[in-house]
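Entry 14. Ran structure prediction on the chain below.
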Amino acid sequence: MAEEEQQDAVAKWGPVLLNRDERMGERMRAVFYLRTDGSEEAAETLCRALAVKEDSSLLRHEVAYVLGQMQLASTVPSLAAILADVDDCAVVRHEAAEAMAAIAADVDQTLETLQAYCDDARPEVSETCKLAVRRLEWVKENPDARHEAEHSTAEGVDPAPALSGEQSLEALGALLMDTNRPLFERYQALFAIRNAASEAAAKASANDEGGEDAGSGSEKAILALAAGLSDTTSALFRHEVAFVLGELGEIGGPAVPALEASLKNVNEHEMVRHEAAEALGAVGTEECIALLKQYLHDPERIVAESCETALDSINYWKDFEGAATAEPVVSGEAN
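Output, C-alpha cells:
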C-alpha cells in the first residue's frame, strides 16, 4: 500500500477504532482495515486500542489477534505488557500470548517471556502459553517449514502447524478427541481437518470429477470438527474449535447444532460462547440470524457484543454484494 494510502487509512479508521462511543461493528471494521493497511502506523494505533483496559474485551482481544497476524516485531512489547497484567481480562491476555508466538520475533526472548506464564492462575492463559512455547520450539526445530505452515488454507498464522501427510479423516478425528495427547498435537489435527474440509468444499464447488464425494467429505470433516465442542477438558480447545468452524464460513452449516448448543449453554466459558456466536454469524443462515438475535442482550458482555458484531457483519456483506464500488474489507475473527 502506498504511503499516502496508509496515512489515509490510519487517519480514517484510527479515530473510529479509538472512539468508545462508536458502534461495535464499525470499530471491528476499523480493526480489519488497519490490518489490511499493515503499516507501523496502523499497528501503533491498534496498540493504543489494546492498552485501554476499560474498553471492550471483545474488541481488545480482536486487536491482539490482528497484531499477531500482522507479525510486526514492534508490537511485541505492547502484547507482553498485556500478558503480564494478571488483573486484565484472561481472554485478552490469552490472545496476547498467542499473538506473541505468531510474530515469533526474537524467539529465545519470547520463549522466556511466555514460559513465565505457563503456570498462570487462569487456565486459558497457562494453556495458551504452553501451546505458544511449543509452537516456538517447533519454529526453532523447523525453520525451513515455518513459512509454509504460516500460509495455510486459512491464509493466517495458526497456533500450531497443521499435520501434513496422508492421515485419514478418521485418524485425525481420533487424535482431535484424544485427551491423553498433548494439546499441541490435537491442534495440529484440528487445523488439518479444517484444511481438508476447505479443500473438499472447493472441489465440490468447482464440480470437479468426484465433486459429490468431495461435498460429502467436506461435511464429514466439519462434523468431525464439531465433535470437538463436546470436549470436557479445555475451554481453550473448545474455543479454538468454534473459531475454526467460523473460518470455514457458510460451508460450516453442518456444525450449526453444535454451535447453537455452545451458545445456549450459560455454564460454558464465555470465550467458547463468543466464538460460537461469531461462527454462527459466519454461516449466516436465517436460522443463525434468529439465534444471534436471541442473545443480543446476554449478561456476558463479550457474548452479547459477539452477537451484535456477527449480525452487523451479515448485514454488511449483504449490502456489499450489490455495491461494486464499495471499499474492500478483509474479514476474520480472533481465536
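The chain has a mean pLDDT of 90. Will compare against last week's run tomorrow.
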